[in-house]
Amino acid sequence: RGASVRAEKNFSRSDSSVGLSAQVCLHGGQVVSWRNHRGEELLFSSSKAIFKPPRATRGGIPICFPQFGNCGTLEQHGFARNKIWTIDDEAPPLNYGDNNSNKASVDLLLKPSEDDLKCWPHCFELRLRVSLSMDGDLSLISRVRNVNGKPFSFAFAYHTYLSVSDISEVRIEGLETLDYLDNLSQRERFTEQGDAITFESEVDRVYVGCPGVIAVLDHGKKRTFIVRKEGLPDIVVWNPWEKKSKTMADFGDDEYKQMLCVDAAAVERAITLKPGEEWTGKLELSAVASTNCSDH
Ligand code: BG6
Q1: Which CATH number is 230's domain given?
Q2: Substitution candidate for ligand 1 out of 238, 239, 259 with most atoms within 8 A of CB
Q3: CA-to-CA distance for 108 and 292, rounded, in angstroms?
Q4: Greatest Cα pair distance in the chain
Q5: Where are the coiled-coil regions (predicted)?
Q6: Which of 75, 125, 127, 292 has a CA 20 to 30 Å removed from the CA of 108?
Q7: Residue 190 lies in domain
Q8: Does the pTM exceed 0.95?
Q9: For ligand 1, what atom is nearest to the CA of residue 62?
């Protein structure tokens, strides 16, 4: 069952050169692969990942909804990543400038089950469009609609596992001087002091009120990920480092060196929708070659 669900939807640019592709699972609405023109995988997946519903797979881009982390009554990161979504052949058009044809896309839909309504009693429709452009950019657009009689609030995150050469070779630019909530100290609030963020130990932070574009520079792979977001004010940065890695059954002891989670998110302040309202949150990822990382 896990394998067939996992294989539900692959898509690639048939009209472009060679390797460009993305793979999305119905399990979790989770993007599990994104490859560039050279066929190189850009998202991290653990060699110990378990492809078996209802657990989310360790890697790719799990969707955290309607809760982020364990701040709430639901399971960690909410239930959306653990559910089987459907293909949405009748997705309403996006009034978002994303309806053009120069992309390969798939639309998925999640509606609450009876069990979901027991633990989170709000009728919603969560739509996800995953698109791959001719340039190799990957975009995820989520829409949450309140089809309830009452308002509800939720958190959201694209929990994005980027594949990196070695975490010691990576830095993030664009979060300097921002405030962050530190998940390693009960979400205490700090202000970022450094020029760019580099990694020497476990990091688990929610940067708040972030700009719409940040860059993740990987000196080892001479690659820069550009992360663009709309409708999602926060950025979560997570690397479990050595000790925590050893406590995770679906993660290799040394794999923290090859990944970095950078999540476009709405965590600090919940999003509230009145009956009939819809929210849209967009993530766009580009991976560009950087001949000299210090130029950025
Ligand atoms: C991060 C959180 O986004 O996800 C961390 O900030 C958490 O606190 C991590 O440990 C992984 O969560 P999970 O549930 O996928 O193991």
Answers
A1: 2.70.98.10
A2: 238
A3: 39
A4: 55
A5: none
A6: 75
A7: 2-295
A8: no
A9: 15
